[in-house]
């Protein structure tokens, strides 16, 4: 294991406030504020647009509409179905129509007031049901199927069907969407963007400006959080700032305020899921049939990849011999929904976890017994519905250790006892697993590059394609380079991510950023080391009369390079680098990596999309107030798999943070729109993310520390997204407490988020015995 005391490379700067985010970058001359005028209608035709008066406002340097775009007015990461600026129609509230650059924000607002736009409102689609009714979809349905689902559902001893709704989620990165553009000479454009995907931002800027990518440099030192919200959607602000910068020939900065950011950016996709399940008398799943409908919003964005990941995680940790899942992306008149930590995985897992939970209730068993019965096996029952064989399955050891360390069974007894004795408070307990596939499911994206320089003084500068969003990417890359060169971390610095240093990169996404870029850094270092080894072996051999130094015996360790066979032949790393320069050895190299052995046939729904899986489990216990529906986490125990961690403290932070962010999604984060498509929850007074008070008072997080069975950098594992889904244990613990109101005899009517309102209504129905006959939980055959 690497040093447990590794700290985040920017920790001190974060705390002192010296860390630079986009809005902090000093620009001394001619900086203009960029501003976006956005649509007030969910769906409308633009009848006329008059900017004449607005142009006269003093201090205004540029006002642009669609016809002022020099390049293509087309954006979108996969399908170009998003105009950069609305042209003839608007398709969601918040869609950009006009851009303004002025010396002050007040002047921008003054100009906005003088813009005259005539709209003819049209009838918008604002819900998944409405989209289904109107046959409004983005692209075609996707399906994955194995076995005989229909027959199995017909012949099984037990079956049920139901519906589950899972809600949207706002990213709530602390730094809102931001971009600073500085014009260079000729067509050059320098873009400092809060983006998880600098290369795609570069592409988008080049395309709207109609210039080559070699004239656009995108640089990202760090983001104040991303969570998927800046995987594609940072591109818009970059394009807008670049258009204004290009028109005004002055630096332009756009930093959204919180309300506007919440109103105009996409969210996690809400889903409507319909399921059927068949199982035997022990609780073993025989078949499931799932229809997933997501709300894609007004444009495609990453919706199909997100749906695909939902479908690939609708099994979560369970072997189901007969499995069918179909995914359809609804097109609505809401801002285009996008990547969010988990990328459809949480939505898919919520369905199968609901099924397993319900099987247990139907059979009067503890849900943990049913889970255990259905976990993927190690030698048999170990192929997924898409026919990937699960290797190095860590579900059994994680389960065994966590059940013991969390004292699950004796706490179950205490919970039952408490519930028997209390009417106004109910306790709930749940263990849920996570098995998360690591790799972009779009296989070609699994590649990364690096450019490593060693200077004559022995200091090292690492350039790589991954971005830093607080998650510790730079820290991990720094330690990879230090370890490979055998130097102390103080010798290494990671440069801001820059498209002119490492080109054609993939997004920092899919939890794979350290995996991919870490290997690219390692490969770059290996190239430089090979040159050094050759030259030094030669140099050492001339030092004395002993046998020549063999390159294979040259070791890099403790800021030194030495010959293992001739320990007196050694040289300080820094001295060696100066010597290498004098010996005309190149000390700079690129590195490249692509994940080996994966492949995925989307059309067939079969293959090996994932290099490996990351596993984890959580046991959460809650206390629910049966009069208010409010809950409190009494204790949460997590055992999570990070392989042989590159930075244990950083990974611990990701596990805790991911879990707590998920806790928000499953409980209080309630994204609501009104009947016209206006976002109602657009500020922290109406949208409640977890606060310090919501972190479990008793929070026991541990890692299982088994080296990755797959050949990853240092045998580590990806950790960014998987822990978020551990929060399903909170959701089901609350459901368990609700269920206790009806003595676990009936299935509660439940959805996600389990807001106080959802909890209270579910309890109320149980008290009045209405749940059993509720249409959403009817049995297939009864
Ligand atoms: N982004 C993407 C992702 O483009 N493909 C993926 O598979 C993915 N998975 C998780 C998060 N972002
Ligand atoms: Mo993502 S949801 O940006 O990995």
Describe the structure.
- By secondary structure, this protein is an alpha+beta fold.
- The protein folds into 3 domains: 33-123 and 171-264, Aldehyde oxidase/xanthine dehydrogenase, molybdopterin binding domain (Aldehyde Oxidoreductase, domain 4), CATH 3.30.365.10; 271-441 and 602-767, Aldehyde Oxidoreductase, domain 4; 447-594, Aldehyde oxidase/xanthine dehydrogenase, molybdopterin binding domain (Aldehyde Oxidoreductase, domain 4), CATH 3.30.365.10.
- 29% of the residues lie in helices and 24% in strands.
- The chain is built from 19 helices and 29 strands.
- The chain has an 8-stranded mixed sheet, with helices on both faces.
- Helix 10 crosses helix 11.
- The radius of gyration is 28 Å and the shape is globular.
- It starts with 10 loop residues before the first helix and ends in a 15-residue tail after the last helix.
- 56% of the residues are buried.
- Mean pLDDT is 97; it is low at 773-777.
- Bound molecules: pteridine-2,4(1H,3H)-dione and dioxothiomolybdenum(VI) ion.
- Residues 302, 305, 309, 339, 343, 440-442, 445, 509-510 line the site of pteridine-2,4(1H,3H)-dione.
- Pteridine-2,4(1H,3H)-dione binds at residues 302, 305, 309, 339, 343, 440-442, 445, 509-510.
Descriptors for this entry?
single chain; Aldehyde Oxidoreductase, domain 4; eight-stranded mixed β-sheet; globular; binds pteridine-2,4(1H,3H)-dione; binds dioxothiomolybdenum(VI) ion
């Amino acid at each position: 294991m690497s040093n447990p005391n590794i700290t985040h490379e920017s920790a001190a700067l974060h705390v002192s406030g010296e860390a630079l985010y986009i809005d902090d970058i000093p620009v001394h001359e001619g900086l203009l504020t960029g501003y976006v005028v956005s649509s007030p209608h969910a769906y409308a035709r633009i009848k006329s647009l008059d900017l004449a008066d607005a142009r006269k406002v003093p201090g205004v340097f540029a006002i642009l509409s669609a016809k002022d775009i020099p390049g293509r007015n087309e954006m979108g990461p996969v399908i170009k179905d998003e105009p950069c600026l609305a042209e003839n129609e608007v398709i969601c509230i918040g869609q950009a129509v006009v851009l303004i650059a002025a010396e002050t924000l007040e002047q921008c607002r003054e100009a906005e007031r003088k813009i005259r736009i005539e709209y003819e409102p049209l009838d918008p689609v604002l819900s998944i049901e409405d989209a289904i009714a109107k046959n409004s979809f983005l692209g075609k349905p996707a399906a994955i199927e194995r076995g005989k689902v229909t027959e199995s559902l017909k012949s099984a001893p037990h079956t049920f069907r139901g519906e589950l709704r899972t809600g949207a989620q706002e990213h709530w990165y602390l730094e809102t969407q931001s971009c600073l553009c500085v014009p260079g000479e000729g067509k050059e454009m320098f873009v400092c963007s809060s983006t998880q995907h600098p290369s795609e931002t570069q592409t988008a800027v080049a395309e709207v400006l109609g210039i080559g990518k070699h004239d656009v440099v995108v640089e990202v030192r760090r983001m104040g959080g991303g969570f998927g919200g800046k995987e594609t959607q940072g591109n818009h602000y970059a394009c807008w700032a670049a258009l204004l910068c290009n028109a005004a020939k002055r630096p332009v900065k756009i930093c959204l305020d919180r309300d506007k950011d919440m109103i105009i950016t996409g969210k996690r996709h809400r889903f409507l899921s319909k399921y059927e399940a068949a199982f035997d008398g022990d609780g073993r799943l025989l078949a499931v049939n799932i229809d997933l409908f997501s709300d894609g919003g007004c444009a495609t964005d990453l919706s199909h990849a997100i749906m695909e990941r939902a479908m690939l995680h609708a099994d979560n940790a369970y072997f189901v011999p007969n499995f069918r899942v179909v995914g359809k992306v609804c097109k609505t008149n809401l801002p285009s929904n996008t990547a969010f930590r988990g990328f459809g995985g949480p939505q898919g897992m919520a369905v199968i976890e609901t099924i397993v939970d319900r099987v247990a209730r139907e059979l009067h068993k503890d849900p943990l017994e049913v889970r255990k019965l259905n976990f993927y096996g190690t030698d048999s029952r170990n192929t997924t519905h898409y026919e990937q064989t699960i290797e190095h399955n860590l579900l059994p050891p994680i389960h065994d250790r966590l059940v013991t360390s969390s004292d699950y069974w004796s706490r179950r007894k205490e919970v039952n006892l408490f519930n028997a004795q209390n009417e106004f408070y109910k306790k709930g307990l749940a263990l849920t697993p996570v098995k998360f596939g690591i790799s972009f499911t779009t296989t070609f994206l699994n590649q990364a590059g690096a450019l490593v320089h060693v200077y004559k003084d022995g200091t090292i500068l690492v350039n790589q394609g991954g971005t830093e969003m607080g998650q510790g990417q730079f820290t991990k890359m720094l330690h990879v380079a230090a370890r490979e060169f055998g130097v102390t971390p103080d010798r290494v610095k990671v440069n801001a991510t820059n498209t002119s240093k490492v080109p054609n990169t993939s997004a920092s996404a899919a939890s794979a950023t350290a995996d991919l870029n870490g290997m690219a850094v390692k490969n770059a270092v290996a190239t430089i080391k090979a040159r050094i080894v050759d030259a030094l072996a030669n140099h050492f051999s001339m030092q004395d009369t002993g046998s020549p130094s063999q390159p294979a015996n040259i070791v890099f360790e403790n800021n030194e390079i030495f010959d293992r066979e001739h320990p007196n032949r050694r040289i300080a790393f820094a001295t060696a680098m100066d010597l290498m320069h004098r010996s005309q050895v190149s000390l700079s190299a690129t590195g490249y990596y692509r994940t080996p052995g994966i492949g995925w046939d989307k059309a067939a729904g079969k293959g090996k999309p994932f290099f490996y899986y990351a596993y984890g489990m959580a046991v959460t216990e809650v206390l629910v107030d049966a009069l208010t529906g409010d809950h409190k986490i009494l204790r949460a125990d997590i055992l999570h798999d990070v392989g042989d961690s590159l930075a244990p403290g950083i990974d611990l932070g990701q596990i805790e943070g991911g879990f707590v962010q998920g806790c928000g999604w499953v409980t209080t984060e309630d994204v609501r729109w009104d009947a016209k498509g206006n976002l109602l929850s657009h500020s922290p007074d109406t949208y409640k993310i977890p606060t310090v008070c919501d972190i479990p008072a008793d929070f026991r997080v541990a890692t299982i520390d088994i080296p990755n069975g797959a050949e990853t950098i240092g045998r580590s594992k990806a950790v960014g997204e998987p822990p978020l889904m551990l929060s399903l244990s909170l959701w089901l613990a609350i459901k368990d407490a609700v269920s206790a109101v009806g003595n676990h005899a009936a299935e509660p009517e439940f959805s996600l988020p389990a807001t106080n309102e959802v909890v209270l209504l579910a309890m109320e129905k149980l008290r009045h015995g209405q749940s059993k006959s509720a249409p959403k939980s009817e049995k297939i055959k009864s």
